[in-house]
Automatic annotation (TrEMBL):
Database matches in SUPFAM superfamilies: Homeodomain-like, Regulatory protein AraC
Pfam families associated with the record: HTH_18
Residues annotated as domain HTH araC/xylS-type: 192-290
PROSITE patterns: HTH_ARAC_FAMILY_1, HTH_ARAC_FAMILY_2
SMART domains (alphabetical): HTH_ARAC
Name this polypeptide is given: AraC-type DNA-binding protein
InterPro entries: Homeodomain-like_sf, HTH-like, HTH_AraC, HTH_AraC-typ_CS
Organism of this sequence: Siphonobacter aquaeclarae
GO MF entry, a single one: sequence-specific DNA binding
Keyword vocabulary terms for this entry: DNA-binding, Transcription, Transcription regulation
Lineage: Bacteria, Pseudomonadati, Bacteroidota, Cytophagia, Cytophagales
Amino acid sequence: MKTPLPDPIARSLHLSLLHMGFTPLDQQWQYDRVISPFSRMYLITDGEGWVSHNGQKFVLKPGYLYLIPSFTYSRYHCEEYLEQFYLTFFDELEEGLSIYETRPVRYEVPALPHDRLLFERLLALNPNRAIIEKDPKLYDNRPEILSFNQRADQPLPDYLETNGILLQLFSRFLEGQTDQENRRAQGLHQLSAVLQFINRNLHDKLTIEQLAEKAHLNVDYFSRLFLSIVGVRPMDYLINKRLERAQLLMMTSRSSLKEIAEQVGIPNIYYFSRLFKRRFQVPPGEYRSRARFG
């Protein structure tokens, strides 16, 4: 039997808890085209509702866990009554990737018998993180969410236990990797120095020569290797990451579009707007309005 290769990318995963709570919902819980810079997880305890995202509709049933990834348009609906534990979180990998880019995940899984106890313990460790406003369009995109998880007042044992429970719950959604996915993970690890360099320097002007030098390869070979592993050319990947960072800043800061364009390394606002519309089929100003106000 072949021993599966270790996944060095996923092993650098860090999850940061933002919100946590337990709430009853009713027919007012009906929202469309919600998009968030963080992920959501639900444990349903009673009632019924549904969510849809990634082209799929999921009926929310008691005894099941549900995951809604970050930067995913989603819909929420409750016909009569629904009770749920909920939490929201950021995911981070050292390479600047999202876990959703590197591993297959499920969006609905049966809860294990002790998962409710884990949610209850997480709530006891984090009693002041409840969402007061139930409309996700109103609470998702506050500028302060980026600093919300910086809990300097939380004792270290509580912080470590919180992160351990969060990782344990998230692990329920991870699927096993195929040989091809394992090889891709190894390839991404091979490019980790370059990916980290890109993620940390999106505000700077970067060239293909700089990236190839970081990988200690000549430009032609580096470009072919990057394309074979990541699936896009290096400079296309760089532009995508600049635009994704712009998405996050639009939703979580009060900076002007011009300032955001400069912060992600595309200082020409007209060029930035053209790239953004080409990628997301909507101008950046309209995108920001949708993200903030639905």
